[in-house]
Design brief:
With 238 residues, this protein is mainly α. The chain contains nine helices and two strands, in the order βαααααααααβ. It has one domain. The two termini are 14 Å apart.
Length: 238
């Protein structure tokens, strides 16, 4: 793994347990960020618009729509040669689940002032940035949508930015047609989410360019073959 060193992990289940705790914290923060951007009532990110659009026309909640879309994307990514990691599968299940749980608690309301709405929107973007750090830093797989992007880059031999922008543009367009919440917040989110994630990565000292995520098959093999436990690539902090 680039940027990492191979260390002996004497207690592999403890090693994995610590990573899962970080995953769950990341998923919860990401879900909180999504729900804050929704209740800011200024427009959501492209995928949020798509999920809400689906929810508007089906019995599915926002979280369930996110899970269904995530499953379809995981299967598509697998067909394109991307094996999902534990983090990828957890992303699909728990972000949508946490979103619905927080929503059912009915503790987040749309602010009464426009300034309050903008504060809530940026708070959501900030939470998504930190959620991304906590779930990605364990190197157990990126989210389904990132996996789809990677698979399509390999398939079509096009630049990452072109593939990513195309995917999100399609999601936004379909979500808009389905009545998803598009607004100034959508534009703000698209323009600032990258900076939020980058800020969290820098504070957390996580270099996304120099890591290799372990997919679920690789993790299984590491635990199946006791001799390979000594070959688990981790960062010095672990």
């Amino acid at each position: 793994m680039g940027g990492s060193t191979v260390y002996e992990v004497k207690r592999p289940w403890l090693w994995l347990g610590k990573k899962i705790l970080s995953l769950m914290l990341g998923f919860a923060l990401y879900a909180l960020g999504n729900i804050l951007t929704l209740y800011a009532d200024l427009g959501m990110n492209p995928w949020g618009v798509f999920h809400m659009g689906i929810s508007n026309h089906t019995p599915l909640t926002f979280g369930q729509a996110s899970q269904v879309v995530g499953l379809v994307i995981l299967l598509t990514s697998y067909a394109l040669g991307t094996i999902p990691g534990i983090g990828s599968i957890g992303n699909m299940i728990f972000i949508g689940g946490f979103f619905d749980i927080i929503d059912m608690m009915n503790i987040i309301k749309t602010p009464e002032t426009i300034w309050g709405q903008y504060i809530m929107l940026f708070s959501g973007i900030f939470a998504i940035g930190w959620g991304s750090l906590f779930y990605l830093r364990v190197n157990l797989g990126a989210g389904p949508r990132d996996g789809l992007m990677e698979g399509m880059v390999r398939k079509f031999k096009k630049p990452v930015w072109m593939i990513r922008n195309t995917i999100e543009a399609i999601a936004l367009f379909i979500g808009y047609l389905l009545g998803g919440p598009v607004g100034i917040g959508t534009i703000i989110t698209v323009l600032t989410i990258g900076f939020s994630v980058d800020f969290a990565f820098k504070v957390g000292r996580y270099d996304s360019k120099s890591v290799k995520h372990l997919d679920s098959v690789e993790v299984y093999k590491l635990f199946k073959d006791r001799n390979s436990i000594n070959k688990i690539p981790v960062r010095k902090s672990e």
